[in-house]
């Protein structure tokens, strides 16, 4: 949810304005793994297509970081994966909204996130993608006249400290 220039309190902490926001142009790609067997020994790697997209994410994240230090605490990650709009949505009697519409198609959201988190770790956004404590992912077909892209926002999650009861004399 947009924070409109101010912090938003939640029941489990304080989510701040995005400390990082960037857009990766082009079609979002899920992280696909390929298993190669040579002389009975297997190795696992990403496919060239997903590897190229992850390089774009790494580059965009590094540019957005602008030399800031990596985040060391819990973060909220918001991702909008905007996919190519199928022509079937815009022809015939049942025309869909010309804006972005939900995209129930491949790639799987979880695979997009795997690649994105790994690329952001490589870019130095955080130490480990395990720091993502809150995650919101949306897949959409692009609006008419727009293009595929991936929009990313990262916010710090600050957990308020509560003072422990003082040990003292009872009166």
> What separation lies between the terminal Cα atoms?
49 Å
Q: Enumerate the spans where pLDDT stays under 50 for 5 or more consecutive residues.
A: 1-6
Rounded Rg: 20 Å
Structural class: alpha+beta
Number of strands: 8
Taking all residues together, what is the mean pLDDT? 83
State the share of residues found in helices, binned by percent. 10-25%
Order of helices and strands: EEEEHEEHEE
Summarize the main sheet: 6 strands, mixed
Specify the number of helices.
Answer: 2
The gross shape turns out to be globular
What strand order characterises the main sheet? 1-2-8-5-7-6
Kindly estimate the percentage of residues that lie in beta strands according to DSSP: 25-35%
Entry summary:
The chain is an alpha+beta fold and 171 residues long.
Key structural traits:
6-stranded mixed beta sheet; two-stranded antiparallel ribbon; disordered N terminus
Describe this structure in words.
The protein contains 2 helices and 8 strands; from the N terminus they run ββββαββαββ. It has 171 residues and is of the alpha+beta class. Mean pLDDT is 83; it is low at 1-6.
